[in-house]
Structure formats: C-alpha cells, structure tokens
Give the backbone structure.
Amino acid sequence: MVLSVMRSVGEALGDRLGYNSLWLYIVLVGPALILTIAAQIWVKNAYAKMSRMYSKSGYSGAYAATQVLRYYGITDVRIEQCSGNLSDHYDPKNNVIRLSEGVYSSTSVAAIGIACHEAGHAAQYANSYLPIRVRNAILPVTKIGSYAGIPLAMLGFFIGWDPLVTVGLLLYSFIMIFQLVTLPVEIDASRRALKVIDSIGMLSREDEYGGAKKVLTAAAMTYVASLAVSLGNLLRLLVLFSGRKRD
C-alpha cells in the first residue's frame, strides 16, 4: 500500500522533473544531504560549546545516568566507559550504558545531557516503549534491505520481472521506515532525560538546562536528516524504475 502510493508519487515526479539520474539525485537527495551536513555542524558546535560549560551540581556523566536509572526504578543496567568520541550508546543485549571518555567522567552540561539521553533509552526498554519494540522488530528486514534491496530491484529490471523489482524496492523501503520509527525513539529518550534533569535539579534552569536541551535537539536533527536522505533516495529509485519501465 505505502510502496504503491510512493510509486505513484515517483511517477508524478518523473513526469515533472524528467528521468535524468544526476538531475534527480540533485533535486531529491541533494537538499537532504545539505540538511545532513548542517545537522552535523550543529551537533558539533552545540557539543563543543556545552562541553566548556560545567554544571554547578558537579554531576559527572556517569553519575547523572545513574540518577535517571534510579528515577525510573531500573536496577539491572551497568554503566561503563568506552573509547571514541560521541560513541555513547545503550546496549540492550548486555544491559549496559557505554559512555565515551569525554562524557563518562566529565561534569559538563553536554556530558550530562548525553549520558541522561542514553539512560532514557534504558528506560524505554524497561517500560516496553512501543516504537522501540517496532524498531527492533524491523531491524533484521532493514539489514537485508540495505544489502539486497537495490540488487534485487536491478535484477528484476534487467530480466523483465516486475514482481522482483517490487520486492527489491519494498525491502529497500524498510531503511526509510526504520529511520521514521527511530525518530520518535530518539526524541522520547531526550524527553525522558530532560524530565529527570529538571525534576531533581540536576542542572540549573536558566542556562544549563537550556544548553543540554540544545545539544539533544541538535542530535535529533541528525535523525531527521537521515530520514530525509532515505526518503529522497527511495523516491529517486522509484522515479528511475518507473521511467525505464515506460521506455
């Protein structure tokens, strides 16, 4: 159903924009790539600025994460330090929050915001948050789609078998669906984090809380950009395949 609607959109775009591959890439994917670059710059700038602002509470990133876990009644999640820059993540398989070197022991506003965000993901799993369950359910298909979607669609096109083209594009579309489901997951994790930060006075309301919110908002924009890129690429492929079919 969704793919059928998008195919119709693709055909309409093809009629309006033409079927030149480079032109379609510039029009459909180019703006999303610009958004991606802008989002990455925004994240780096926000993180750099808030990394130089230290919290009055003196909480480290690791301690801040423990406070979020305690707030949500979570007792079985460990917090460890990992290597890398902005490599922070929650590992649900091993019930571990891994914080990068610049976040784990830092008392900066950026470190507290990021650490609490990762603890927010742990809270999502503990509360069986529906979008994260949906995201995990479609992850295997998304991985298959990222590797096999385009090759199957191309194979179907060259042998003249439209059902295989449809299967390939359907598999590839799961990349966009995955990104779409990921967006509310990330936003909700930040919402949970900021709720605790505000509730227990982890950061002062004036500048520190606002700084943490800016870092997490900038990070969320990277997921919006990823979704835009996935949507642009899928529309471009639908236009190209519908154009070649007409030829």
